[in-house]
Design brief:
Elements lengths: L2 H10 L15 H14 L1 H22 L24 H23 L6 H5 L2 H30 L6 H12 L4 H5 L3 H9 L6 H7 L4 H27 L3 H6 L1 H30 L7
Helix pairs in contact: 2-11, 2-13, 3-4, 3-13, 4-6, 4-13, 9-13, 11-13
């Protein structure tokens, strides 16, 4: 990309044909409530998929020893198989992300005007790999503020104030990454939807002026998720450890259903961004 092209695309917002990229207006009420209405409108499909994938995720956690109740080991011994091998968490984590990728693809496929067959979705291995990598990238971007904070916390101050300022300025950029990244979530959603990707510079231009609305809508989903999962944790914490162990299988199953529900809400939000950016002019 030439310097002139970069200036036209990112600064002026002019596309290759010479026409300026129009900024899209995303209604706050739509960003806030439409992910939930999409979930409830397609709740029957969600439940069918969630029951299957919740069982699959539970089986993975039981086999690898990372069931939800294993985190209660800090309060005492849990009569449940819990792994203490940190290395086994990596294959478990990757398999879990692949399962989420398939779930997201199947749910988004059900939203299409002409859905693909189950076999067609399940055999799209390259798309599954791409979406799994996107999930890893998303988690990395979300963790950037934590990484930046850790680097600032453990650093040894340099006596040279110039080096110290440069280090602080560079590392502090990690706190801004999630706020910039949320404006590109439409491409995240349409990858699961199996639609044609949009140039990143075009998304950046069309989504200008909507960052706060996007941020508050995502925060609402996040706060609701924190409320639900915190309630589960506190309610179980009040039970005797023996009873928690007996409830281990059922708790893990329902915990995964709620996890899939909030993952679906996040995907819905990404698709809604895409819908508002292009005024409903989607492939399907």
């Amino acid at each position: 990309m030439s310097l002139q092209t970069f200036y036209n695309h990112f600064i002026l917002g002019i596309n290759d044909s010479g026409h300026p990229t129009v900024e899209a207006q995303m209604p706050f009420s739509g960003l806030l409530f439409r992910p939930w209405s999409m979930l409830f409108d397609n709740f029957k499909t969600f439940i069918k998929l969630a029951l299957v994938f919740s069982l699959l995720l539970s089986l993975l956690s039981w086999v690898f020893g990372y069931a939800y109740i294993c985190r209660y080991n800090i309060y005492g011994d849990i009569d449940f198989y819990c792994s203490r091998n940190a290395w086994s968490y990596l294959p478990y984590f990757l398999l879990k992300l692949i399962a989420f990728s398939y779930f997201g693809m199947l749910f988004c496929n059900s939203l299409k005007t002409k859905p693909l067959s189950l076999r067609q979705v399940l055999t799209q291995y390259r798309l599954v790999l791409k979406n799994t990598l996107l999930l890893i990238l998303f988690l990395f971007l979300v963790m950037m503020p934590v990484i930046s904070f850790t680097l600032l916390l453990v650093r040894v101050p340099n006596p040279d104030w110039k080096i110290e300022i440069i280090y602080f300025a560079f590392v502090s950029l990690g706190f801004l990454v999630p706020f910039i990244g949320i404006r590109f979530l439409s491409n995240f959603g349409i990858s699961f939807f199996r639609a044609k990707p949009i140039p990143q510079w075009q998304i950046w231009q069309r989504s200008r002026g909507n960052m706060l609305k996007i941020l508050f809508a995502l925060m609402f989903i996040l706060l609701m998720g924190m409320f639900v999962f915190n309630s589960i944790h506190l309610n179980l914490k009040g039970l005797p450890l023996a009873e928690i162990s007996r409830l281990g299988v059922g708790v893990d199953f329902f915990y995964n259903i709620f996890t899939l529900m909030f993952f679906t809400l996040f995907l819905n939000h990404c698709l809604i961004q895409y819908d508002y950016l292009y005024n409903g002019e989607t492939d399907d």
